[in-house]
Amino acid sequence: MVLVLVLCILLLVMLISWAKVNAYLAFLIVALLAGCLFGMPFTRVITSVNKGLGDTLGSVAIIIILGAMLGKLVAESGAAQRIANFMHALFGARYVTYAMALTGCVVGIPLYYNVGFILLVPIIFSVTQSYRLPLLYVGMPMLTALSVMHGFLPPHPSPMTLISVFHADIVKTFGYGLIIATPAILVAGPLFAITLKNIRPSGSNMVKASAVLPEKELPGILNSIVSSLLPVMLICLAYLLPMLFGPAPWIIALSHWLVEPVSVMLLTVIIATYTLGLSKGKSMTQIMGCYGNAVKEIAMILLIIGSAGALKQVFVDSRLNDALAVMLVHSAMPPLLLAWLATACLRVCLGSATVAGVTAAGVLFPIAHHAGINSNLLVLAIGGGSLFGSHVNDTAFWLCKEYFGLSVKETLRSWTVMESLVSVIGLAGVLLLNGSLEN
């Protein structure tokens, strides 16, 4: 059975990376083929595929869609631009790399990587020209922070899927993720950027296509920050309420309601619709159009996540789950290290961090139930592995190359090394945190 699993993963990798088959179709093809190879009746394979797709999307689709809507509004309203400008002015030239990293962190929580990249690249070029600093020295810390937020922290698609699959605690995962993300961003961002000063890319005209709103049209800085980070603030409030006002029934009920990701994201979108939309002169039609476009942009991500869940369910229903669990439990390699290594291999082969993460969720599903490990740290170990070794089969690699006018060699030297640093530091943080929690 394990041999069939290996062959199925290799086929999945070949379909996506070599044959250029859409990831959604590749997952479905491999899921159906795997079920048949495991000896399941075809009707049962179809049932497993339907159940896996429905269960996976049912647990994360609402949150991902609401997160996409919030991110799109934060981008189009100018809130992200306001935050970037504020950080730029606050830190000045001496600490500009730290300003860029902090901006990437704040903007990266609600925005998907590609959206955040397109939005913030003009600001990187503007800061570079203002201070006459090397482009990668200024830009890489921001890209580092955006990437870490995308790979490690909810409400991004891969972390949310992993939290659902492994039944992790979203608040603990977010908290542990911030602890691990901080040194990863500092080392792979501002500190690593110092080594990139001698790379002098020619730049690209592509950046001129990214519109920057006039200063007078931007929302206020407090409005921008609060609207962007409101999900985090509300979840923190949910945990503080019982401590501040006691365990009254209505306080406990409110706390339980606020800690639910769906409630938090829906409330945030409703509030942001006014604070970043209606109050700034946008019509409801314009705002709903913005939300509609956001959903269109992540439709394929949702389909890929659902189809990955279908493959996972076939693995579970075929009893491969039990066979793999026995092998993993008796493995000499620590489970968290094994999870990181498996995901890193998938990332190098498949390119997409999201696809690598959700694929690893299916393959590593037995670990969470048979190895007695911290499911929150398992999510972060997989998240770290999903960022390792980005190269020519990753769209983010080409975004960095083309927008910054780099050669392939320069992109490997800068972007690929940065992603690998983040991944390895993330793994080290997971292992250290696991050790401290066990003691």
From TrEMBL:
Name the major location. Answer: membrane
Keywords for this protein: Cell membrane, Membrane, Transmembrane, Transmembrane helix, Transport
| Segments traversing the membrane | 29-49, 56-75, 95-121, 133-153, 173-199, 220-245, 257-277, 298-316, 336-365, 372-392, 412-433
Q: Which InterPro entries match?
A: Glcn_transporter
Flavoprotein: present as a keyword of the record?
A: no
Q: Name one GO molecular function term.
A: gluconate transmembrane transporter activity
So what family is this one in? Belongs to the GntP permease family.
Give the protein's recorded name: Gluconate:H+ symporter
Question: What organism does the UniProt record list as the source?
Answer: Mucilaginibacter straminoryzae
